[in-house]
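Quick check before the chapter quiz. The format below is the same one you will see on the exam, so make sure you can read both the input and the output lines.
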Amino acid sequence: MFGAEVYNEAKLSEKLALRSQLALYPSLWGGNIYNKTGFALTPAISLTPKYYYNLRKRADAGKNQNNNAGNYISLKVEYLPNWFVISNVEDIYVTPMISFVPTWGLRRNLAIKLGLGVGKILGKENHTQIVPDISFKIGYDF
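Here is the expected output.
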């Protein structure tokens, strides 16, 4: 739903970029099983190399390509540490995880991203799980 992100996308070449990001991801729970509605914000750090495959086509058509406005494919590598949790519930923690998620995206002032990858929970049990990455965002570039 609502989280917070700070990122930088550095241009490496005409079609390649590297996005580094710090985020706070939200979680909500409640209903009949829990005695109160809970929320949590947990940190995440990621690096995402991106390949923009249609920048030349957009330029030839006279379309905006400022700030890498285009379509891309990428591989998001993300780490969710147990540094801290902001929550209305006491004694809550995050089990650290690393994930690798290939994605397809469309980046303009409105952005859409779709991805499905794999994540490894880092701990005693080391479970592997499927990690979806689906987002729709409205952004502003400073």
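If your answer matched, good. The longest strand covers residues 38-52.
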